[in-house]
Amino acid sequence: MMRKHSSHIEAGSSSCCSGTCYCSKKVKVTICVVIWTVIAVIVALILAVIIKAATLQELFERMELGARDDPVFMSATEQEILERSQRLVDAISYRTISFSGTNLSLEAMTDFGTFLERVFPNLHDSDFVTFTPINTYSRLYRIEGTEKTLNPYLLCAHMDVVPEGDFDLWTHDPFDAGIVTESDGQDYIFGRGAIDDKHAVLGIMEALEYKVVNKEQPKRTFYIGFGHDEEVSGYLGAAEISITLEKMLKDNGEELDFLLDEGMFVVADIIPGINVPLIYIGVAEKGWAVVDLDAEGDQVHSSTPPLESSIGILAHGVANMEDNKQPSMFGKGPEIDTLRYAAPHATFLLKMILGNLWLFSGLVSSALELSSQTDSIQRTTTAVTIFNAGVKENVVPSQAHAVVNHRIHPSDNLEDVLELDRENADRVKVTLRDSFPPSEVSSYSNDVIPFQIVVNSALEVFPDAKPVPGLMVANTDTFHYKNLTDKIYRFTPVYNLPEDIARFHGIDERISVDIYSKVVQFYYRLMVNADFDVKIAPTAQVEVKPEEVEEFLEILEESDYESPINNTDSNLLPLTKVMEESDENSANETDSHLMILQDIPEEPNENPSNETDSGLPPSQDILEEDFDAMPVNETYSDMLPLESAPKDLDLYDLTPEEETFSNRTID
Ligand SMILES: CCCCCCCC/C=C\CCCCCCCC(=O)N[C@@H](CC(N)=O)C(=O)O
């Protein structure tokens, strides 16, 4: 047998089996084919992975909003930066702490409101800013645009803060630290609220005050909503602001285009291998659930302890919950796009992994799990936040109680979460106290102008950072506004390293003077960039050049209309009048409705440099191209029917101002 084997080895030494087996030639060939096929597949896979990594494209394409290369910022001398920082320091000194839904610091909140009015006097006094107190303490502002816009937006922030927690752990007083120079040589504004969320309240106010002082009334109307109880879920503040705002929008014939609230931030060094900061925009938000855990046992003398006490039973349940986490949902929510958008900026090795998530999603999910921060984007989290039992050291208590706070991933559902809780804490009573569901995902494709406005504004202050959409892992007031718009973004441009993220609700909350200055500039640029997408109500006017006026008049003459307008010196004309007249006489006869100004800039981003000062396309284009050619019976997405024009508007009854073509706003 041994001999036979060795002779076989000699005879078959050139075969792929190296002559070590007794296979027939056919089997050997088959094995060879299989082995080579496997090798070829592996080589092809490796090649595909490398090619994919080498050809990764940037997913975010920046839309030109008009001032990309040379954005004009607020003036920011050293003195101005210092004064702005000092105002944030002062804001932090108000202890506007929300302890619970029924324990808010209302006196401090009243004082904080007075403080805002004192340090931003001009905006509170401005003709185009209207302030409405909501539920006494929350604040809603309407900033009237120069155009009668149909698509205002909302900027949100909140004025309350969480308690400081363990005061002794703070390096500086959480409400009275001022500006501190730290060992890295940077100046920081310290204190509770520095990044959550008084920087946003003050940043928005600074930008608006500046615009008011410099007579920069925006073209586009917008709203500002400051809640006073966000930290306890906003039921008294944002929820009420939302109700009033809905009514205001309705009364003004407006629809909220988008809203921006606090949320995610600029984050660096969060994923090893991605060496650029990420502008992480929260395009969706987790749901939320509070679960009560109750365990029971015998109440006995501590000298004869039971085999299992209520505390022991509860502790086991809680430990199981921490050990057996809620399942990963990686790939089923916005977290996958966070990584796909970040991938082109990774090292080549990481590009191979992130560029090929179809192959490596398991690996990536395991890697995310290594840090609680990155893990939070891929699963429902479980935090045990309260644990109570016992009254005396020699009494074994009969009751033990704990509270678990879940943040629910958008692809998870509450029933499944609770089922796993009950499996983990099987000898504990598990009761759902309160919850709300995860949000919808707001659109973040490259043609969504609100997303572009937010990202462009962030890029203007952080030009080296890369935008990524993602999941807001905590909660905001945006839940209360979900009926007003489907474009909800959660972001402020605070710069965080992983260790800084722990400062939210943690110890030594702070923001550097430098970053705070960027926060202010961000809101200012956002107010400017938002003017790019003004959708104008049908009663708006258009600027026309003198030669265009001639042309208008010719049309009017042909129509036998006796125009009271015979003066072409000036350059304004109510468009609605001309449009209607032309409509009646057009070859494309129609009985339907007026041509409406906002129909014309259907693709406003195509040539923004041609915009007139009013933010409208040149009226020449309207006349020569769109006007006659426009199929008037067609329904345009942004077109309002004639019926929605003010009923009492007499198109031919011109005021003296109109006759000289001066500006006129039709209410
Ligand atoms: C690949 C990138 C991974 C990035 C991981 C980022 C991990 C982020 C971790 C922490 C986020 C801190 C969020 C601050 C939230 C501020 C809002 C807040 O405190 N809200 C409260 C109150 C409420 N409305 O419910 C909350 O409890 O969520």
Automatic annotation (TrEMBL):
Keywords from UniProt, A to Z, are:
Hydrolase, Membrane, Metal-binding, Protease, Transmembrane, Transmembrane helix, Zinc
Is Protease found in the keyword set? yes
Which GO terms of the molecular function aspect are on file?
aminoacylase activity; metal ion binding; peptidase activity
**Reactions it catalyzes:** N-(9Z-octadecenoyl)-L-asparagine + H2O = L-asparagine + (9Z)-octadecenoate; N-(9Z-octadecenoyl)-L-methionine + H2O = (9Z)-octadecenoate + L-methionine; N-(9Z-octadecenoyl)-L-tryptophan + H2O = L-tryptophan + (9Z)-octadecenoate; N-(4Z,7Z,10Z,13Z,16Z,19Z-docosahexaenoyl)-L-phenylalanine + H2O = (4Z,7Z,10Z,13Z,16Z,19Z)-docosahexaenoate + L-phenylalanine
The residue ranges of the Peptidase M20 dimerisation domain are 284-420
InterPro entries attached to this UniProt entry: Bact_exopeptidase_dim_dom, Pept_M20A, Peptidase_M20, Peptidase_M20_dimer
Gene Ontology annotations of biological process type: amide biosynthetic process; amide catabolic process; amino acid metabolic process; proteolysis
Give the highest taxon in the source lineage: Eukaryota
Membrane spanning stretches: 29-51
Protein family per UniProt:
Belongs to the peptidase M20A family.
Q: What does this protein do?
A: Secreted enzyme that regulates the endogenous N-fatty acyl amino acid (NAAs) tissue and circulating levels by functioning as a bidirectional NAA synthase/hydrolase. It condenses free fatty acids and free amino acids to generate NAAs and bidirectionally catalyzes the reverse hydrolysis reaction. Some of these NAAs stimulate oxidative metabolism via mitochondrial uncoupling, increasing energy expenditure in a UPC1-independent manner. Thereby, this secreted protein may indirectly regulate whole body energy expenditure.
> In its UniProt entry, what is this protein called?
Peptidase M20 dimerisation domain-containing protein
Species in which this protein is naturally found: Tigriopus californicus (Marine copepod)
